[in-house]
Amino acid sequence: MTTKNQALAAWVQDVATLTRPQSIVWCDGSDEEYDRMVSLMQEQGTLSPLNSETHPNCYLHLSDPQDVARVEHLTYICTSEEEDAGANNNWLAPEEAKAKMEGLYDGCMDGRTMYVVPYCMGPVKSPYSRCGVEITDSPYVVINMKLMTRMGTLALKRIEQEGSFVKGLHSTGELDPNRRFIMHFPEELSIMSYGSGYGGNALLGKKCHALRIASWQARKEGWLAEHMLILGLESPEGETHYIAAAFPSACGKTNLAMLIPPEKYKDWKIWTLGDDIAWLHMDDQGQLRAINPEAGYFGVVPGTNAKTNRNAYEMIQQNTIFTNVGTTADNQPWWEDKKQGEPASDWKGNPYSSESGPAAHPNSRFTVSATENTAYSSLAEAPEGVPISAIVFGGRRKELAPLVYEAKSWDHGVLIGAGVASETTAAATGQVGVVRRDPMAMKPFCGYNFADYWSHWLSFSERTDNLPKIFHVNWFRQNDDGDFLWPGFGENLRVLQWMIQRCKGDADAVETAIGYLPSEQGIDVADLNIDPDVWQSLISINDDQWRQEMSDFGDYLDSFGDRLPEKLREQHKAVSAALG
Ligand code: OXD
Ligand code: MN
After folding, report:
1. Do 123 and 149 touch, CB atoms closer than 8 A?
2. 131 included as an active-site residue
3. Which is the closest atom of ligand 1 to the Cα of 276?
4. How far apart are CA 245 and CA 278, in angstroms?
5. Which of the 8 DSSP states describes residue 509?
6. Residues 91-137: pLDDT tens digits?
7. Residue with the nearest Cα to atom 1 of ligand 1?
8. Nearest atom of ligand 1 to the alpha carbon of 445
9. d(CA 518, CA 504)
């Protein structure tokens, strides 16, 4: 036995009896172990080194071409009552789901090594952190977990002290899409994943634990587990405000979290706390504080270049695992919009030809430790987290949503979050570019009924009057020719500044039916050469379009029936009435 925790030892034994691995390895999270696993994967042919002069310690993993994204239609929340999972989730009865999964797991590790991976989500010493153990037969998962979480001996120690942990069982199985399921059992704090090696389906600390299971725990314990980046905005005077922002997958959370201010604002600084997940707790003063449960980034590669995200571009020049990118003739990683080099091979390992699609898969990813980011905030390791001044929701909308607007109250902000809709991206299998409702950017990740989730969000305004202000942004407005109206990237700093000024009571705004919008001079855009009509359209609303939107949104809310909180209905009514 390799742990003092009886429940963990017994579970590992039970899993081994079911899956029948050739051997069992307990991971300690050391650098030596990482190097050993990297060598093993090279021997097995599942990882290859990239050009060691230009990209030291960088590796390429090419996945099965049918296993490149999250699979929402195969992802289930298995609660005893179907209503607890809600219409926002696929549901299966726990016993049925377990029987199905046990059938798949039966003997599935025959001839393979079973790795036991203890991990801690959040700084190991933080009271807000939570631990888990992932059992997996995938060396790729082990090396990614090492970069993405606090993994190994320290996590195991905390589990032994605390006695509780989330159980995650993963096997890549045969990578057959017909034998692939991601099941969650929030009542038992456990996860079962089979048939995929893709990050969001297989690195169980991330979406499965830190969002789906954690959101359930958070509701019971009075906190929030959210699909949010966390950043610090430091002014030239040295004052730092922290912002948490929720956007759907592949909508620019990583870019915003690592933003480099434009020349005009070069005395400002953005610090990254996290790029994907935030756990928000209320402290004794009624202040919301955030920690990032993760320790690394699993980011979308295409589009990353020295202009769009210089921090990320530089951080992935070394010590990075690339998944499903192309390569150049001299074996450097290559992706669309890298703006450097030419592809020689594509993500399937074939010679590149423009007719056979992009060189890098649109959802190709980098995995890298957060410490490689030169903008990584030292407070990311603070056990007490950082105080949040503003919460931002956003989506990818060609039309409708203005550049930025502010909620009139917390409860109104909850309505705005619930109303998030966005065009789908390559982060999940399925059609790309269709608008779908994605409340709080949590549609794929909320581990329980959205109606109960909104009630939980609304309950925060009953606990304190010290809550962050809530905003909504849309960087993605386009004209009829498909050109973006707002330059985005570094220029988004101007919008963040407006938010912080609003928090401090220092900026004017115009009240509209949907919230407060910046006044014409409220955001400094004078040097951006934006046509005045375009600027007007970015900071105003079209009442007809909004009436239609509120009507569609109302139908969506109605689909949650009686469980929908009355307060949310009232907020919806108030906005609709104001639109007339
Ligand atoms: C991610 C996602 O990988 O949201 O972060 O899909
Ligand atoms: Mn995400």
Report:
1. no
2. no
3. 5
4. 9
5. E
6. 999 999 999 999 999 999 999 999 999 999 999 999 999 999 999 99
7. 249
8. 4
9. 15
From 237, 39, 12, select the one nearest 117 (Cα to Cα).
12
CA–centroid distance, residue 23 to ligand 2 (Å): 33
CA distance 433 to 423: 5
**Do the beta carbons of residue 185 and residue 99 sit within 8 Å?**
no
DSSP letter at 540 equals: S
Task: Give me ligand 1 centre to Cα 35, in Å.
Answer: 26
* d(C-alpha 262, C-alpha 316), whole Å: 22
Question: Residue 215 in contact with residue 442, Cβ under 8 Å?
Answer: yes
Domains in the chain (CATH in brackets) are 6-46+73-222 (3.40.449.10), 225-296+380-579 (3.90.228.20)
Question: Which one of the listed residues 27, 78, 251, 446 is annotated catalytic?
Answer: 251
Single-letter code of the amino acid located at 133: V
DSSP structure string for 405-416:
EE-SSHHHHHHH
Output the CA torsion 274→275→279→282 (10° steps). Answer: 70
Please state whether beta strands 435-437 and 515-518 pair in parallel, antiparallel, or not at all (unpaired).
unpaired
Between CA 4 and CA 162 the distance in angstroms is 12
The beta strands (E) that lie in 408-505 are given as 421-423, 435-437, 469-473
Q: What is the pLDDT of residue 2?
A: 86
Using a 6 Å cutoff on CB, does residue 276 contact ligand 1? Answer: yes
Percentage of the chain beyond pLDDT 90 is: 98
User: Token digits for 86?
Assistant: 């809600």
List CB-based neighbours of ion ligand 2 within 5 Å. 249, 276
Give the containing element (helix H, strand E) for 271: strand 269-274
**How large is the angle between the packed helices 410-418 and 566-579, nearest 10 degrees?**
90
Collapsing DSSP to helix, strand or coil, 516 comes out as strand
pLDDT, one tens digit per residue, over 311-331 is 999 999 999 999 999 999 999
Q: Is 427 in the pocket of ligand 1 (CB under 6 A)?
A: yes
Q: Give the nearest ligand 1 atom to 300 CA.
A: 3
Q: On the CB side of 421, how many CA atoms lie within 13 Å of its CA?
A: 17
